[in-house]
Design brief:
The protein has 879 residues and is α/β, with parallel strands linked by helices. 26% of the residues lie in helices and 25% in strands. It contains 23 helices and 40 strands. It binds alpha-D-galactopyranose.
C-alpha cells in the first residue's frame, strides 16, 4: 500500500469526519449513493430532491441531469435541492455533489424510475427466499434496473438523519434476502405496466413491531383515546422494538423527502394480538394518522399509500378487528380519486394457520393491481383491482337483509381449503340485533344467496321481536369461506350497520281502499262501556242530520265491551242486553245510511275491559266479521294469554281479511295497537299488515297528553304511505277537558299529521262549536289530501314555545302549522328554507280556519300565535 493510500485510509477511519466537517465538505445520507433510483417526475408532477449536510451557509452544487443546481446550507447545516423533471429510462447517470471546499461526492450509476417505500413488520420483512415459489422467482430475478435498498435495523428515542444501507442491483444473489411483498409488487407492476422502467425499492421494516413505533409523536397525539385504551405499553414484550416512535425516528425520518411513487405497508399483527373491539377504533386512528403524517412530512402531496390487509391466521376473531380498521381507512372503493389501496388476501391463509402465509406472489400481484389503480389512476375494466366491496346492507324485512356489493359481478363462494368444506360450518355472513361491538352480541347464522351483485341474506332463528342491526362477513381470524367476484378477487371481511327499508309494501291481497285516513266516530272516549245499539243508530242518524257524513265522516265504530262470551262453537257473542238485534243487523242499519260500521277486539285472551279477546280465535273471528260485513276492526293488545310474537295475531287477521276480500270483495280496515318506535321491528312489519297503528298510549283530554301523542307520532312519520297511517289516537274534540282553542289546535295537528279522524265525543248532542271544528272544510281537506303524506315538525322542537310543522299537499302547496305550545303568546316565523322553498319564491298565505287569503310573503312568514293555539295555513308558491 502506498503512503498516500495509507494516509487516505487513515483519514477515512479516524480523522476525516472531523476534518471534513471543519472544512465544510458536503455529506450525503446513505440513501443518496451509487445505483440509487431517483423518482421520475415526468408523469405526475412530483419532483425529486437531493439533500444533505454542509457547513451553515455553505454553497452546495449538484451536477445532475438538467442541472447544475445550487443551494445554500441553512443555519443547521442542512441543505436540499429540487431537481428538474427527468423521464424514466434505462439511461444511467453520475451525479456530482460538491461544496465550497473538500472533495466532491460522485454518485454513480443513478437511474430515474419509480421508487417504492416498503415498511411494516414481519410479513413485509419476509424474504423472497422464504416464499412458496422462491426457487423460480430467484432464478428469474435478473433485473439490473430494479435496485434494492434494505434499511438496517435500528431504533432511536430521537429523530435520526441517516440510515445504514446500500443500493444493490436486483439479481438472484441479492433478491433472495429482500422483502418478498415489496419485490413481488414491483415485479408484477413491471410486468403489467412499467416494463423496463427502473424501480427503486426501499425496505424499511422490522418484524414484531407495533404501528405506534412507526408513528411520529405528533401523529400519536392524534389518537389519545387509542393510546389510553391500549396498546403502547402492551408491546414491551414484542420481538421487535415496541416503544412509540422509535422506528419512525431511526428508520423512516432519515428517508423523508426522498421522493417516492408509493408507500407499501404490511403491518398490524402486533396490534392484533390482544385485539378487542376497541382495537378497530384504535388501529383506524393510528393508520389514518400514520398515513397523513408521512404524507405531510414528505411534502410531495397525497402519494399512494397501499397496504395489505391482514392475512388469515390464528384462531378466534382477534385479527378481524384490525382488518376492519384497515377497511375503515380505505375511504374510497374504486373512485377516481383513491389515494389509498388495500390488497385483500383473506383467501391466502395456510392450513396450519401460520402468521406468515407463504404465497407472497399473489400478495404482490394484488398490491400491483392496487398500485396501478391508486398510483397510476387506472380504472376497471382496464385493471380489475378490487374484489366485491360493500355498498350497503338494508333490511328488507325483519329477517331478510339485502347486501349490495360494488364490483360484485360473477360473485361466488369458495373455501381456501377445498370447496367441500366451504359454508358447512359457521355461516360466512352473520347478523346481530345488538349494537355493533356490544360485548355480548348474539350473532345469528344466515343463508346467503347470491343474486347478481347482491347477497340476499335470510337470518335464521332470530326472534321476531328483534331487529337486525349489524351484519358481518367472514368475521374470524381465519375464515373458511370467502366471497369472490369474477376476477377471482376476494371481498374484504366487514362488520357494518344495517339500514332499514322504510317504504311499506302494499297489503298482501286486499287492494288499497283507504286512500286517505279514515274519518268517523269511536265510542270509547265518550261512552266507555255504556255503548248500546240505540246510541250507535242515533249516532249514525246524527252523522246524516248534522252534516258530518257530508263532510266525510263515515265510520261508526264500537269500541270495547260489545261482546260478552263465546258460543260453544267459539263464535263471539254480542251483549244480548245492549245489542239485542245482533251485530249483523246493526251493521245493516249503519250501511243503510250510507255509512260504514266498525268493531273492536284484542289480540290477547281478554280485552282491556276483561271481555273475550281474539287469542286463538283470529281466523274464526275474521270469518265472522266478514259475514257480518263489518268495515273496520280495531285490534287492541290487552290482557291475559297471547301469542309470543305480537304480529302473529295481526297476521292471522290479515289472512282472514284477505280471504274475505277474495271470496266476497268486502274490504275491512285493520287498525292495530300498537307500534310506536323506530327501534322496534314492528315499524317494518306493521305497515305491511295493518292500515293504521297506534303510536302511543290512550290520549287524554289534556293539552300535555295531546302534545305527547303528537310528538311520539312524529317520530314514526317516515313509515306512512297511502293506506297505512300512524294513529296518535282518537279525537278529544267536544269532550270535557280541552279549551276551545286547544281543541282547534288538536284538530289542526291531527289533520296535518295524516291521523285518522275518529270523533270521540257525543255526536247525538254535539254542540255547534264542536261541530264547527270537526267539519272545518279546509282543515279537513288537509287531512284528506290525496298525497297522504304525513306532516312533520320542520323547526327545532320547542316544548314551551313556537314550533313549525308542515305537510306537502297534492297540488304543490303546503299546509303549515305555527304551533304555540307555551303559556304566553309568541310570534312564530317559518322560513322558506324550512319549507324547502327557494327564498325568492312568492307565496300566498291562506288561513285555513277562517278560509281567506291573508297576503303574500317571500323568504319567511311570521304570525303572533296565542298560547296553545295554532295558526294553520296553506302556503301556495308561485313559480
Ligand atoms: C285500550 C285502548 C283504548 C280503548 C280501551 C278499551 O286502552 O288503547 O283505545 O280501546 O283499551 O278498553
Amino acid at each position: 500500500m502506498s503512503t498516500e493510500n495509507m494516509a487516505g485510509r487513515l483519514c477515512l477511519l479516524l480523522v476525516c469526519t472531523v476534518m471534513q466537517t471543519s472544512l465544510g465538505a458536503v455529506r450525503l445520507p446513505s440513501i443518496f449513493s451509487d445505483h440509487m433510483v431517483l423518482q421520475t417526475n415526468s408523469e405526475y408532477g412530483a419532483r425529486s430532491f437531493i439533500f444533505g449536510f454542509a457547513n451553515p451557509g455553505e454553497k452546495v452544487t449538484v451536477d445532475a441531469p438538467r442541472g447544475p443546481y445550487y443551494n445554500l446550507a441553512n443555519s443547521n447545516g442542512r441543505w436540499s435541492i429540487m431537481l428538474d423533471p427527468v423521464g424514466a429510462s434505462m439511461k444511467t447517470y453520475n451525479i456530482t455533489v460538491s461544496g465550497e471546499e473538500g472533495q466532491p461526492i460522485v454518485i454513480k450509476d443513478v437511474m430515474y424510475g419509480n421508487v417504492l417505500l416498503c415498511s411494516g413488520q414481519s410479513n413485509m420483512v419476509f424474504t423472497v427466499g422464504g416464499m412458496l415459489n422462491a426457487t423460480a422467482e430467484i432464478a428469474a430475478a435478473h433485473h439490473p434496473n430494479i435496485r434494492l435498498f434494505k434499511v438496517a435495523l435500528t431504533e432511536s428515542p430521537t429523530p435520526k438523519w441517516d440510515v445504514n444501507g446500500t443500493w444493490q442491483l436486483c439479481s438472484p444473489q441479492t433478491v433472495a434476502s429482500f422483502s418478498a411483498v415489496c419485490y413481488m409488487t414491483a415485479r408484477f407492476t413491471m410486468d403489467m405496466h412499467w416494463h423496463d422502467q427502473p424501480i427503486g425499492l426501499i425496505d424499511s421494516s422490522w418484524g414484531g413491531t407495533p404501528i405506534q413505533a412507526w408513528m411520529t409523536p405528533e401523529a400519536l397525539k392524534q389518537c389519545p383515546q387509542a393510546s389510553k385504551e391500549g396498546s403502547i405499553d402492551v408491546y414491551n414484550d414484542v420481538t421487535g422494538p415496541g416503544d412509540p416512535s422509535v422506528l419512525w425516528n431511526a428508520m423512516i425520518n432519515p428517508l423523508v423527502g426522498y421522493s417516492i411513487r408509493a408507500a407499501l405497508w404490511y403491518q398490524g399483527e402486533a396490534n392484533a394480538r390482544d385485539a378487542v373491539p376497541q382495537s378497530t377504533k384504535s388501529y383506524t386512528c393510528y393508520l389514518t394518522h400514520l398515513i397523513q403524517s408521512w404524507r405531510d412530512l414528505w411534502g410531495i402531496g397525497d402519494f399512494a399509500f397501499l397496504y395489505v390487509q391482514l392475512a388469515p391466521y390464528g384462531n378466534g376473531d382477534t385479527v378481524s378487528y384490525v382488518r376492519q380498521a384497515e377497511l375503515n381507512v380505505l375511504s374510497h372503493a374504486g373512485g377516481d380519486v383513491d389515494t389509498t389501496g388495500m390488497a385483500v388476501i383473506i383467501d391466502l391463509g395456510e392450513a396450519d394457520h401460520r402468521v406468515h402465509p407463504r404465497n407472497k406472489t399473489e400478495v404482490g400481484r394484488r398490491m400491483a393491481l392496487q398500485l396501478l389503480h391508486v398510483a397510476l389512476g387506472l380504472q376497471q375494466p382496464e385493471v380489475n383491482f378490487s374484489g366485491p366491496s360493500l355498498v350497503k346492507a338494508t333490511a328488507m324485512s325483519q329477517n331478510m337483509v339485502s347486501v349490495e356489493m360494488l364490483f360484485g359481478d360473477g360473485m361466488f363462494w369458495n373455501g381456501s381449503h377445498g370447496c367441500e368444506q366451504c359454508c358447512n360450518g359457521a355461516s360466512p355472513v352473520q347478523v346481530s340485533p345488538d349494537e355493533v361491538f356490544a360485548p355480548n352480541s348474539t350473532w345469528y347464522n344466515t343463508t346467503a344467496t347470491i343474486k347478481g351483485s347482491t347477497l340476499q341474506v335470510v337470518v335464521k332463528g332470530m326472534a321476531e321481536t328483534l331487529m337486525p342491526k349489524s351484519i358481518r362477513l367472514d368475521w374470524a381470524s381465519f375464515p373458511e369461506c370467502v366471497l369472490f367476484n369474477e376476477h377471482w378477487l376476494p371481498a374484504s371481511p366487514f362488520i357494518a350497520n344495517i339500514s332499514f327499508k322504510s317504504v311499506s309494501p302494499p297489503l298482501a291481497v286486499s287492494p288499497n281502499l283507504l286512500e286517505t285516513p279514515p274519518m268517523g266516530f269511536n265510542s270509547w272516549n265518550y261512552y266507555h262501556c255504556n255503548i248500546d245499539e240505540q246510541s250507535v243508530m242515533r249516532t249514525a242518524d246524527a252523522f246524516i242530520a248534522n252534516g258530518m257524513a257530508k263532510a266525510g265522516y263515515k265510520y261508526i265504530n264500537i269500541d270495547d265491551c260489545w261482546m260478552v262470551e263465546r258460543a260453544p262453537n267459539g263464535e263471539i257473542q254480542p251483549d244480548p242486553v245492549r245489542f239485542p238485534s245482533g251485530m249483523k243487523a246493526l251493521a245493516d242499519y249503519v250501511h243503510s245510511k250510507g255509512l260504514k260500521f266498525g268493531l273492536y277486539t284484542a289480540q290477547a285472551e281478554f280485552t282491556c275491559q276483561g271481555r273475550p279477546g281474539a287469542y286463538n280465535h283470529e281466523t274464526q273471528d275474521a270469518a265472522t266479521y266478514c259475514e257480518w260485513e263489518i268495515d273496520y276492526l280495531k285490534i287492541d293488545g290487552c290482557r291475559g294469554a297471547r301469542h309470543p310474537n305480537r304480529s302473529t295475531s295481526w297476521q292471522l287477521f290479515r289472512k282472514g281479511f284477505d280471504d274475505c276480500y277474495q271470496k266476497t270483495g268486502h274490504f275491512i280496515v285493520m287498525s292495530v295497537e300498537s307500534c310506536g318506535s323506530m327501534s322496534d321491528p314492528c315499524h317494518w312489519y306493521t305497515p305491511q299488515l295493518a292500515n293504521m297503528w297506534r303510536t302511543d298510549g290512550d290520549v287524554q283530554a289534556t293539552w300535555a297528553s295531546v302534545m305527547a301523542n303528537l310528538d311520539k307520532n312524529n317520530e314514526m312519520a317516515s313509515i306512512v304511505s297511502k293506506g297505512h297511517y300512524n294513529d296518535p289516537d282518537m279525537l278529544e274534540v267536544g269532550d270535557v277537558g280541552l279549551t276551545f282553542t286547544e281543541q282547534k289546535s288538536h284538530f289542526s295537528m291531527w289533520s296535518l299529521v295524516t291521523a285518522p279522524l275518529l270523533a270521540g265525543n257525543d255526536i247525538i248532542h254535539i254542540s255547534k262549536e264542536s261541530l264547527d271544528i270537526l267539519t272545518a272544510p279546509e282543515v279537513l281537506a288537509v287531512n284528506q289530501d290525496p298525497l297522504a303524506k304525513q306532516g312533520i315538525r320542520v323547526s327545532p322542537s320547542n316544548t314551551t314555545g313556537g314550533e313549525v310543522w308542515a305537510r306537502p299537499l297534492a297540488d304543490g302547496s303546503m299546509a303549515v302549522a305555527l304551533l304555540n305550545r307555551g303559556d304566553e303568546p309568541v310570534t312564530i316565523t317559518v322560513t322558506w328554507e324550512e319549507l324547502s322553498l327557494n327564498p325568492k319564491t312568492n307565496v300566498t298565505i291562506r288561513d285555513l280556519w277562517n278560509r281567506k287569503d291573508v297576503g303574500e310573503a317571500m323568504t319567511k312568514f311570521s304570525m303572533k300565535v296565542a298560547s296553545h293555539d295554532v295558526f294553520l295555513f296553506k302556503a301556495t308558491p308561485h313559480t
